[in-house]
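note to self: the first set is below, dont mix up w the second
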Amino acid sequence: MWGSARGYSDTLLRDAGVTVATIHDTRDVLFGGHAPEPTITCSRTCTTRCAKSARPLASRPMAMPIALASSTGWHVPPAQLHHRAALRLPGRNPRWKNGVGKSVATTNLINALAERHKIELYETPVGFKYIGELIKQDKILIGGEESAGLSIRQHVPEKDGVLAGLLCCEMVARRGASLGALLEQVFGKVGSYYPLRENFRLTADVKAKFTEKLRSDPGEFHGIKVAHVVRIDGLKLVLADGSWVCYRLSGTEPVVRAYSEARSREGLAKLSAAAKAWIFS
């Protein structure tokens, strides 16, 4: 992403004998005209190139967050695979009995994997400083958040995109399968999870009305019963069918961040539309 991670991942992989194609590895203080974060839009060049070359993996890290793409040209949500990779670590080192950390707005696939592996789950407010604190207290083996950040036990208590990319590369090499295939294997064991994050700008009137709405605990959402309400950070509504929505108001601008996750792509499209409608209704 023309940023500070240039020359690390590609060099380490080439030293290990891996064939690597590098793009956007020159300095650009404007980051190609995009916000310096690994969103689907900003990852499009990498995703397209990955599909054309039929490579099983492409990763394009900055120094902290990371973007991943499969050989099908599919942008893979990093949190879905970070924890798939790292939850294998206890088997390789039985002394690592620590838990796993995630922010409240991060995919519940991690909840399902932690339960399956009988690993304690710590759910935090949004912000990697909370994950970092768990690392400093030696409570977790790995921690991650929805904005594509990850770190592990006995490492720095801050997101490390280079480390995250190398963990995913190692997983692909050891398993001999593409990222998309590995994710489908996970879905086959614990069910599918499709997350989405969207930002919506609010007028002063809409923000005031919506702020008041956030104080209530609705009994249903999108025609589905609310199973429970989580207020670790903002308002998270976990629905009876396993899907959920989470709203967080920005403290610096008139924006609400809406996070949605459903158990199918079709369900996510409907849930996203309902999440937006609930803001402006």
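second set (the one i keep forgetting abt)
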Amino acid sequence: MELITTAVLIVLLLVLLGSGVWIGLALAGVAWIAMELFTSRSVGDSMAVTIWGTTSSWTLTALPLFIWMGEILFRTKLSEDMFKGLAPWLERLPGRLLHTNIIGCTIFAAVSGSSAATCATIGKMTLPELKKRGYPEDITIGTLAGAGTLGLLIPPSIIMIVYGATASVSIAQLFIAGVLPGLLLAGLFMAYTIVWALIHPGAIPPPDASTTFFQVYASRHLIPVVTLIAAVLGSIYAGIATATEAAALGVVGALIIAGGQGELSWRNLRDSLLGATRLYCMIALILAGAAFLTLSMGYIGLPRQLAEWIGGLGLSPLALILALMVFYVILGCFLDGISMVVLTMGVILPTVERAGIDLIWFGIYVVLVVEMAQITPPVGFNLFVLQGMTKKEITWIGKQAAPMFALMVVAVLLIWFFPGIITWLPKQMS
């Protein structure tokens, strides 16, 4: 019965999306129909309370602020300066400026804690510049889709906090445990970009000749960007500001730097604010629809029933990890990452503990597979963010992100066979 219900809801969602209904409304519509058909709950009250609770979250205020910060950077010389500073250092690396997507997301991931904010902010800076310089659009969008997910893995991460509270493990240890896997995943993305560039040598614009002196001299263009990121990062890690307060600091810092460059005109300020508002409204509608769908799935009991079914199969530890990876990717077709963690941990954790799997290790594993769901249609948030910025078909964007998805599977296998990638730093911390 559960499989039939799941299949019906998937088909219904695909039909709504294919007919051109807005994504957030499609999610909410499927949730409404699911509750009407399969539960006895009051749909109207549940929808109102859930959507209000989701969109009025204080934690969520960091998202529009980080998007606005990216819009400001996009409309000033800061994004151009970042390329001027990075370009000479990347000229000898196959793929050249394609790596700015990955490097930028890796740095910004340590600021936002949000996959959507990381993807949107870095995308606002890199996509126009790479297009202007003649880089292929497919690999540009593919690397950004994958690297944007690092916002969940590199601390601080909201999902890590949710998991730590649910599993009763140290959030500080989870944060430090996410550093090396995050750098590993960024390294895999860069390695793929290098291989792709070697296979397609004619697709990358020719390099500019540069000396070491010129490389060092060009690095002066990075000072404003590095200063801004250091201020935001420093305020978080020093315990001075929360992520939301740091996001506000980032906006103020971006405005100050833009003013110092003479780029802070009324038109730029207005356009950046309107651009951030439009993009956030798109994301907020999706979040609201996903929250209502999460509630309806919880009432029906699908996540719990599927998790109990997996727990009852009696799998070996490796088979259990691979099965859970498939389970979470499928679940990600319906739910956002935090909802997946909240709804399933109560059933999954006892099974994981019986298998002798370290809960710190499992926490990072869960974040990694949730990252995979971020670039999996039809409810991959990073795909939606990129669709809003590029106006491309979601299936086309998903196709470009497929190699990054495969690299995440490789990362799961690497952390399984070499668990010290996750556990070494927390042990040193202890």
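remember for set 2: The chain has 23 helices and no strands.
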